[in-house]
């Protein structure tokens, strides 16, 4: 078996004509070194541009946080303490309860249930122990709510609404129950 004949680059050089410099290693080494320096220069230019942009944009960083939902930039300070905010939310929910009553007999049952839930959440928020409103009402100190019996009656009405199918409370029962819930919420300093 004969070995492969050596390739003669002189024919390729003649074929390339004026581009025969592509066959010389000096050309490729010079091209590599030149491109490397151009690349280093571009990297340095981009790095300097990035640093310049960071310093130019730095004063606007708080405004971006506002757009992203972070802490407000030059926004007025919060006017309400946490307790005041909770009172505002409780008043808003109490307004929804009253609107249910104004809807007529269709909203009576829902108004009593929502008022019961509102009192339960308020008791939990102020730290009264218990899994549900009944346990929390039992945990209340006697001086925290003056007419605890009225609140128990209102809760009993809520239980009748929730557990007796077809039960519809009268306007008087709903008025009494909501008055008891409102008085308890006021005494707990939630309204």
What does it look like?
The chain has 191 residues and is an all-alpha fold. It has helices spanning 9-16, 25-57, 61-68, 82-102, 105-125, 133-139, 148-163, 171-187. α5 (105-125) packs across α7 (148-163) and α7 crosses α8 (171-187). The chain is rod-shaped.
Describe how the helices and strands are arranged.
Elements lengths: L8 H8 L8 H33 L3 H8 L13 H21 L2 H21 L7 H7 L8 H16 L7 H17 L4
Core attributes:
191 residues; mainly alpha; Four Helix Bundle (Hemerythrin (Met), subunit A); 2 domains; 8 helices; 69% helix
Summarize the structure in short.
The relative contact order is 0.08.
**Compute the gyration radius: what is it?**
40 Å
| Overall strand count | 0
Mind telling me which CATH architecture of the largest domain this is?
Up-down Bundle
User: Any idea what the shape is?
Assistant: rod-shaped
* Name of the level-1 CATH class of the largest domain: Mainly Alpha
Give the proportion of residues in helices. Answer: 55-70%
Strand content: under 5%
How is the biggest beta sheet arranged? none
- Low-confidence spans: 70-80
How far apart the termini lie comes to 105 Å
Return the domain count: 2
The helix/strand order is HHHHHHHH
H/I helix tally? 8
Class of secondary structure makeup: mainly alpha
Q: Please state the average pLDDT score.
A: 80
